[in-house]
Amino acid sequence: MAALGWLTPRRRSATARSVLAGEAAAEAARKSSLQLEQEREEAAAEEVAPAEPEFPVPGDAKAAAFFDLDNTVMQGAAIFHFGRGLYKRKFFQRRELARFAWQQAWFRLAGVEDPEHMQDARDSALSIVKGHRVSELMSIGEEIYDEYMADRIWPGTRGLAQAHLDAGQKVWLVTAAPVETATIIARRLGLTGALGTVAESIDGIYTGKLVGEPLHGPAKAEAVRALAAAEGLDLGRCAAYSDSHNDIPMLSLVGHPYAINPDAKLRKHAKDRDWRLRDYRTGRKAAKVGIPAAAGLGALAGGTAAAVALHRRRR
Fold this sequence. Notes:
The protein is of the alpha/beta class. It is built from 12 helices and 8 strands. It has helices at about 1-50, 80-90, 95-110, 115-130, 135-150, 155-165, 180-190, 220-230, 250, 265-270, 290-295, 300-315; strands spanning about 65, 170-180, 195, 200, 205-210, 240, 255-260, 275-280. Strands 3-2-1-6-7-8 form a 6-stranded parallel beta sheet, with helices on both faces. α9 (about 250) links the parallel β6 and β7 (about 255-260). α3 (about 95-110) packs across α12 (about 300-315). Mean pLDDT is about 80; it is low at about 1-10, about 110-115 and about 285-315.
């Protein structure tokens, strides 16, 4: 009997534990059931929610896309690569090279565009193409594209441009590079055309002067605005793509701004305004090679000068 008495409390304790376990399991089942039901409701809501509008919109004749060139469509600066080609073809002398190297080094150290200094740089650079025929530089440009540029197009950005073309929209390059160089690139990529810096020519020969100023910063926005007016576009339905904070004026004009491979200032600006970002760079970011200075030179020979200086210094 003593042994039996010892077992009785244990049975009662086991029964209490069983009751506790059963109640706990029931409560857990109830909670999990409610959670599953909530998840099903949320999934059903997502299924009936309206999908994000298709973009670009097929057949929208009032929409177009504007793409910056350097580091947006192509790795590096177009006029840098163009300069490499011109140097290879002996467009430069050593004495000219030394001056351009100093101007490029000054800009990289100072980090600002001093108007007088940049004017001197532009005047010096334009003297290189003065007297050359536009047709000659266009022909050389075709060769240089194959030599230095064709393999540097960002596939991701190229895909974005193609999406606009497939939607029946026009696609324009907008760049501080010479309009001749930009036009060659646009044609090779199957784009509509290009807005670029215009170097003055008379009877097909470069005079060594610019028409206005380099197409840089706010000038790009003005060019896009003028083209949109001429083409009958609705900028609110257009898209623009760039890597540089210098192009914020252009990006701010359109209803669909994209930051592509953005610099630090543009990345912050884009995030603050909930703009879309795309970064096609992998690993270490591309080294800066004085692109702002090259853009400041603007004319056909301007980027050439900076390009050759850097090329020589690297060698």
